[in-house]
Amino acid sequence: WPQAAGSLGRLYAMGIDAYHLAPRLAQLKAMPDSRIDGLSGSLSINPGRRVERQLPWAEFVDGKIQRLPDTAP
Which distant-in-sequence residues (6+ apart) come within 8 Å of 9 by Cβ? Predict the structure, then answer.
């Protein structure tokens, strides 16, 4: 995200995710197991109608971050 350099990077990702999430809220409410892959993680709606975010697992290998394979929750 070159547009999001510095301390505002998290806000940039959150804004992009909100933009993509808004038109799909009805779908997420109707299908509770559905998710959206956003810039800030995997997003879903819980029974209390709050957005939940799940981050991918990763580890450092030789000083570089390596994403671990996805696993079922």
Answer: 1
